[in-house]
Amino acid sequence: MDAVEAVVTQIQGLSSSAGDLTRLHTILKQAEESLHSESVRLFSALDQLDPSKHSLGFLYILEACSSGPVTKERASTLVLAISRFISSCAAEQIRLAPEKCMHLILNYLIYYKLVCTVPEAIVNAACLICAVISVCKRFKDQVLLLEAPIRGVAPMLTAIRKLQVSSEYLTTLHPEFLLLCLQAKSYKTGLSVLHDDISEVDQPRDLFLYCYYGGMICIGRKHFRKALELLHNVVTAPMSTVNAIAVEAYKKYILVFLILHGHFSTNLPKYTSSVAQRNLKNFCSPYIELANSYGTGKITELEAYVQANREKFESDNNLGLVNQVVSSMYKRNIQRLTQTYLTLSLQDIANTVQLNSAKEAEMHVLQMIQDGEIFATINQKDGMVRFHEDPEQYKSCEMIEHIDSSIQRIMMLSRKLTAMDEHISCDPLYLAKAGRERPRFDLDDYESVPQKFNI
């Protein structure tokens, strides 16, 4: 019996009880180097294992199979095997530790680097989770190699849910999943992870990419408000140096802000890092100029500027979004008319906002009515548009439920923020850093002394 067959036999025989799994884990770690050297032969071993029963061993075999160069022919086999593993693997086997181990792993292995003080079970769990993540990332690479990103969307989402401790935890697979959704144009599926309120993050880069890709998905679905929120998170996130993700996010942030609000200011919130406040606009000058041109309200000037800088916007893959900005100016100008007129002909609207024909004006007005951007009726006989006030009285059951759910969410976020503030206030590292940076004597610590005493 050669080494590969021996390992497969041990996997099949030691995957039932917790004690056997611990022993198997030790054996697999010792055989890891030999498994990698036999990566080509291991493909056949996958057929002898059931990922739901032999999850731990299947993971090690998969990791070894995907560690070396993979041809396009083998990539198809590997994609199927990884998909099967992700969808049916036993979480208790790939973790080998309670869910709370994830928090310990994050705190010790990522932030504090105190591996030597972590219990062995937690280190083992960390290694396994890293192996799962590694396999999933290689899986993403393989489906992209096969030019079939849609095949990776569902398995990657399953992997995220199995690795997540809670919906508030951002795994390193979130950005990979959103990238696959973008490549596959499966925007609706991508939205499923964007509704979670993230409060726990492993690495800053994961958060940057999650928000950036998430913003792009929301743009694809025309959920501009959510897109702006996610891109805002990238732009205002703490950073010591300007990174490429923040620059690209800022470009899209400007465009989405124009579409949503009809104006733009380069002033960022006070909590934005000084690096971002000083440098981001220098990398995005064509977009700043576009915003300035938009602010004039003159559609011809805006279109001329877009045409002059078409290559730049196209090279940034933002031309489609820029065209939506141009289209939004027509809508913005039509909205201004509702503040002045009660009734207006379609031809007058076309002339005022510089559309080519009354028919084009009608299409814009109809779309705006459908989107709830204006309230109006069109008389088809005489081509007249009558503008109305907002019919919402804010007393319907649906509106009350919406307001109530918003209040509940705000209260929950407030409680969460308070808890996080208390946790950080007690963190030894934070206290040590704050103590070093704080002046020795702070006048705010003392009550003011009256200059005069009345006797």
UniProtKB/TrEMBL annotation:
Q: Where are the transmembrane segments?
A: none
**Cell location:** Cytoplasm; Nucleus
Residues of the PCI domain: 223-392
InterPro entries named among the record's database cross-references: COP9_N (IPR055089), CSN3 (IPR050756), PCI_dom (IPR000717), WH_DNA-bd_sf (IPR036390)
**Which keywords are on file for this protein?**
Cytoplasm, Nucleus, Signalosome
Keyword Cytoplasm included in the entry's annotation: yes
**Protein species of origin:** Cannabis sativa (Hemp)
The source's domain of life comes to Eukaryota
| Entry similarity comment | Belongs to the CSN3 family.
Protein name per UniProt: COP9 signalosome complex subunit 3
Q: Which GO terms describe its cellular component?
A: COP9 signalosome; cytoplasm
Task: Establish whether keyword rRNA-binding is in the entry.
Answer: no
Biological process according to GO: ubiquitin-dependent protein catabolic process
